[in-house]
Amino acid sequence: MRTLYILTFLWILVSQNLQTSMCIDTLKPNQNFTDGFTLISSNQRFEFGFFTPGNGSYGSRYLGIWYHNLPLTVVWVANRNNPVRDLNGKVVLLENGVLILYNHSLATIWSTNNLPIKTTFNPVLQLSNSGNLVIRDDGRNNTIFWESFDYPTDTVLPDLKLGWKLDVGLQRLIRSWKSIEDPSDGEYSFSLDPPEAPQLVLRSGSRKLFRWGPFDGTSFSGSNILNVNPLFRSTYVSNSLELYYQYEMLDESVFSRLVVSSLGFLQYFTWRVNISKEWNLLVSFNTDPCDSYGKCGYYGICYSLSSCKCLSGFTPTSPLDWGLFSYSGGCKRKHELECGHGDGFVKYDGLKFPDNPTVWSNYTDHECGTKCLENCSCMAYANVNVYRNGSLCVVWIGDLIDMKNFPNGGEKIYIRMSRSELQSIADAKRKRVTVKVVSIVTVLGSLLLFSGAVWYLSWVTRVKRKDRISMNSKGQRSGSFQYVEDNQDEGFQLPIYDLDTILLACNNFSERNKIGQGGFGSVYKGQFSNGQEIAVKRLLEKSIQGVEELKNELILIAKLQHRNLVKLLGCCIEGEETMLVYEYLPNKSLNNFIYGTLYSPCLILHFSIPYFLCSFK
Ligand SMILES: *[C@@H]1O[C@H](CO)[C@@H](O)[C@H](O)[C@H]1NC(C)=O
Ligand SMILES: *[C@@H]1O[C@H](CO)[C@@H](O)[C@H](O)[C@H]1NC(C)=O
Ligand SMILES: *[C@@H]1O[C@H](CO)[C@@H](O)[C@H](O)[C@H]1NC(C)=O
Ligand SMILES: *[C@@H]1O[C@H](CO)[C@@H](O)[C@H](O)[C@H]1NC(C)=O
Ligand SMILES: *[C@@H]1O[C@H](CO)[C@@H](O)[C@H](O)[C@H]1NC(C)=O
Ligand SMILES: *[C@@H]1O[C@H](CO)[C@@H](O)[C@H](O)[C@H]1NC(C)=O
Ligand SMILES: *[C@@H]1O[C@H](CO)[C@@H](O)[C@H](O)[C@H]1NC(C)=O
Ligand SMILES: *[C@@H]1O[C@H](CO)[C@@H](O)[C@H](O)[C@H]1NC(C)=O
Description:
By secondary structure, this protein is an alpha+beta fold. It is built from nine helices and 41 strands.
């Protein structure tokens, strides 16, 4: 009899154990379970049930998901702000598909927010192999009515979609625990927002601490989070229904989780199955001081070692503070914007995009700069592949903040500058370039190069520039030609005129408008609708060896622009046509320079840095 008792007792023990370890991963309608029982995913990785965080007492029981057979590592909490006060919590799946957590007196502590299903269906609660708790129709189509991955706590697991379900306006973001013993809403959150120009942002309350973005076609600006990695593959998906960041593990034997900690760190942990004894902190993303939001203030750029520099054209607002390594006051313009009186753009390369991008999806790449110029609050623009389906016009309204230097990779952005700033940059460049050109000439002694340089330099010396002409000729520019010198972080931009504008201005290139002809093509006089007179050098197709060559010519001319010299207003490259548009100077000498006659090298002596040439001679 005694043996029977013992056997029965053992059997009960074993069956109790079986109940909890038999991999029950589902709960059927009207089934319920109490504290002590758990669901375990069929791959034995995750467990769903009641737990007490940290060393807390049983006075605070939470319903959640953790790794099965690992030191308690919670990845999701249902009732994070409303614990059950004793061990009598009860989980019930109702027939209508709603999951409810009751306390002992059957008060609802927490429930899923899916709408009760009216039609006949067969709901089932299942803890999936990815750690996602789902309520689905157990029928043929497995429709999911609710899933815990839609309501993450502080952890992004592989396959969880951080971001937006646009059709229902649901945002999935993670929020830290208050402390390691208290899973209630903490102060730090990490999210993908806003949907218009998605960035990944870490916040403390509503204050931004750290930011990656916006997405630029391959990664979030300033991050390498989507880079190829042997461990996991990241994806960013954007379509009319969804917008999310997600990662999947490439190695099944590694567990991983991205967590926003209660101290505000964004941390990525891994655990190698059967090998690890503790979680390995692979990376804590926001530890670079340069990632500290707005560290260098407005128009400041953060360099490694957390030093700040102003964008060129800007100067520290408070040099004293900057001297004391307090950079947050940022930088101010050396020359104020005139807005509408010929502001232009300077191109920067290798930056993390500033914060607060706005997408102007109704404009093409070419219109972007022009439209930005027309809006006085528009401080920068870029053509960005935000949605992975082609580049879009992205602009920054208001002052630019939170930029970081990325010597390898990083973004191209065009920043608004006043006309006088553009001029002084051009002047500085002219000096540098002349030195460069001349020293190349000196070293190589190449006659060919020399005559080329002479050509370029000579035309500019011949003609005095007329009064300043406003660049603000609305509607005439359809885009811009831009360049960046290698190893430079700034550049010019030369307007591109569309063919129709030029044809209109020059009476369809009528003979009456022709003012000269040469081996390269013809020169026409014309007038824009705003009254500005122009001279158009229309290049013969055969005289252009290639786009590269033309670009070089444009670059050189642009670099050489000076207020006392004739001005290249822009160019037009459309189909077979290639044209350079200069401002028109009534005096005859214009013809000479436009014809590109070679002048004697002596003329160069009049140029600003004749010294090297003289020594060459
Ligand atoms: C839980 O299940 C038991 C047995 O299946 C049942 O008697 C009880 O009413 C259920 N409790 C709730 C709250 O549904
Ligand atoms: C729990 O208590 C142990 C020993 O008292 C301590 O070492 C550990 O850090 C505590 N854990 C937490 C999360 O407080
Ligand atoms: C259950 O929750 C309700 C509402 O929060 C509370 O008034 C009641 O005391 C709780 N019962 C138990 C047994 O904890
Ligand atoms: C799946 O089944 C539900 C309930 O029967 C139904 O409402 C839904 O339209 C079905 N979905 C698909 C994709 O067939
Ligand atoms: C790209 O996708 C976005 C959102 O899905 C859409 O608004 C935009 O018009 C698309 N752009 C192009 C060029 O197809
Ligand atoms: C871990 O060890 C268990 C038991 O030895 C084994 O069944 C399992 O395949 C191992 N898992 C991996 C990923 O090596
Ligand atoms: C294009 O979009 C911008 C910003 O949304 C708006 O200000 C502008 O009026 C729009 N332009 C046109 C032509 O629709
Ligand atoms: C500039 O563009 C922004 C964003 O589209 C808009 O809110 C603002 O009203 C515009 N300002 C002007 C002067 O057009």
